[in-house]
Amino acid sequence: LWWCARCSHHARQAPRHSPPNPLPKHRPPTTRWTLQPPALRQENHVSDTLLRPVALWALLTLSGCALTPDPYERPSPGLPARWSAQTSTHASAAKWPAPVAWQSLYTDLRLQALIRMALERNHDVRMALARIDEARALWGVQRADQVPNLSLGASHTSARTPALVQGNPSAVNVRRYDLGLNLLSFELDVWGRVASLSDAARLNFQATEEDRRTIRLSLVSDVANTYYGWLEAQQRLELLRLTEANRNQFLTLIQKRAELGAASGLDLTLAQNALQNLRAERQTLERQVELARNALGLLIGGQWPKALPEGLPMALQSLDLAWGAELPSDTLLQRPDVRAAEQRLMAAHANIQAARVAFLPRLQLTGLLGSASPALNQLMGGGSQAWNFVPSLQQPLFDGGRTESGLDLAMARKNQAVVAYEKTLQQAFREVADVLVTRDTLQEQWQQQNLALNSMREREQLVEMRHRLGAASLQEWLDAQRDLIQAEQAQVQTQRLWLGATAQLFKALGGGDL
User: Fold this and answer.
1) Three-state DSSP state, 483
2) pLDDT greater than 80 at residue 323
3) Nearest-5° Cα angle at 502, 497 to 506
4) pTM (global) more than 0.70
5) Mind spelling out the 3-state secondary structure of 413-448?
6) Cis peptide before 99 (omega within 30 of 0)
7) Is 394 helix (H, G, I), strand (E, B) or coil?
8) In 115-230, where do the E strands start and end?
9) Helix (H, G, I), strand (E, B) or coil at 362
10) For the stretch 320-330, what's the b/e string if a residue is b when 16 or more beta carbons lie within 10 angstroms of its beta carbon?
11) What are the beta bridge partners of residue 385?
12) Which 3-state string (H, E, C) describes 102-135?
């Protein structure tokens, strides 16, 4: 551009070709170089001097525009409009209110108390808060490069140069005191490199905030699921203890009948085996209760509290099951993990801009304003003022491919961020679809199990009556009891899975205000 401007200047000074026969043929054409007065030639020289930096600045500006990346565009989600081709049995006109507080979903007071303690004391939440502080500090460090950095400095210099070292006939002693306000190397952010790095740090900080919300949302769901598992183990243990008490009484009765000769040794063995099997299963359930209790203690970040509000049994736990299926898949864009992935993608995009601008010149300023003197008592006296101002322009020419590799690295990391964003969306869609299917099928399963449980109870009562009348053997009665126990245990398990699926749906859809 500079040479083009120079050539245009010469073109303006060169003779213009006129239409044919502008002058007589015998008159030689004269150039304007010889006819210009001295003042006009001086004016053209001044304009040429001003044109060179303008042309250089235009060249740098065009170079900066050529390296500027395209504006950020969110990748297309590429998700189906609905979760499943089948219509959910729980679908209704109810929509997801925004925001949804977990207190409105979990109405058990004991569960609410455990969730509050977990949100306050859980180690993962505390670690997430520490990561947020780290990202905020990194953003502050990067943002500080956008403003000049000033420092107050004082120094004392003493030096002695021997004679004849630098052409001096005798030794030279130098003593100097300096006091001043220093402007450290400050880069004028002409192309937006420093601003892009600051934006990337800010976006990473916002991503860590979304990570904290993701952890809190997962923690609420984990506490609820573990609590439901604890209630399930307790309820199954209570049912088993009742059955064990009945079989213990029955074994005592069989032993008395065997002593009187009214029962055979086979009946006594069957009664003993049935009671021993129940006791072994009771030990399993007792272990599950303690393990669930320990898991809850870990989630709440400390020992089990001594005082908790009264909780609800498994049968009285109620969750709103009328939402989720009718929501569009775009709801997933509000999930905290999806937003965190997008924030990191935007940060990678900002890093690309900074990497591209690295090809352009950097304008840096360095200065000093203060005083200097050979004696300390004269440092603040008149005539000791000193200043220094050093602007510098640096254009990278050859660095062994470091700048190109930096741009390739930024592009590769952006591609990784795009893949991570798409994967997070796909994973979120699958989680919601799986939970909706699980929730609907579990409700149908629970209803069928409830019908089967009523049939098992009627069968057990009929077999017991026939056994008392002598029409059925003891083995038939024990089989009927075993089937009834298994049906009761299976129904409790299904109810717990049903409640857990609803808690997982709260997490999968992004939850509410945390």
Assistant:
1) helix
2) no
3) 140
4) yes
5) HHHHHHHHHHHHHHHHHHHHHHHHHHHHHHHHHHHH
6) yes
7) strand
8) 150-161, 172-188
9) strand
10) ebebbbbbebe
11) 371
12) HHHHCCCHHHHHHHHHHHHHCHHHHHHHHHHHHH
Sequence letter at residue 471:
A
Which alpha helices (DSSP H) does 260-335 contain, by range? 265-299
Interatomic CA distance for residues 217 and 340, integer angstroms: 14
Per the CB < 8 A criterion, the answer to whether 296 and 110 are in contact is: no
What are the φ and ψ backbone dihedral angles of 30, each rounded to 5 degrees? -110, 145
Nearest to 315 by CA among 236, 223, 220, 222: 236
Q: Cα–Cα distance between 79 and 329 in angstroms, integer?
A: 7
Lowest mean pLDDT among 85-89, 410-414, 425-429: 85-89
Report the relative pairing of strands 172-188 and 362-373 from DSSP bridges. antiparallel
Backbone angles phi, psi at 310, to 5 degrees: -70, 130
- Sequence-distant (≥ 6) Cβ neighbours of residue 481 within 8 angstroms: 243, 247, 274, 460
What pLDDT is attached to residue 13?
40
DSSP 451-464: HHHHHHHHHHHHHH
Residue carrying the six token digits 């601008």: 357
Burial class (CB in 10 A: 0-12, 13-18, 19+), 239: middle
Strand order of the β-sheet with 362-373 is: 150-161, 172-188, 362-373, 385-394
Number of H helices and E strands in the chain, helices first, is: 11, 4
- Could you give phi then psi for residue 250, rounded to 5 degrees? -65, -40
**pLDDT at position 404:** 92
Question: Backbone phi, then psi, for 261, in 5-degree steps?
Answer: 85, 10
> Residue 217 is inside which H or E element, if any?
helix 193-259
- Residue 433 CB partners (closer than 8 Å, separation 6+): 83, 84
Tokens of 279: 């006791």
Is the CB of residue 348 less than 8 Å from the CB of residue 413? yes
Per-residue CA distances from 261 to 182, 198, 265, 268 (Å) = 109, 92, 9, 11
Q: Is the pLDDT of residue 25 over 70?
A: no
Angle, in degrees to the nearest 10, between helices 193-259 and 109-121: 140
Nearest C-alpha neighbor of 236 from the set 451, 477, 501, 486: 486
Rounded Cα distance between 75 and 97, Å, is 27
Cβ-contact 390, 366 below 8 angstroms: yes
Beta bridge partners of 152: 181
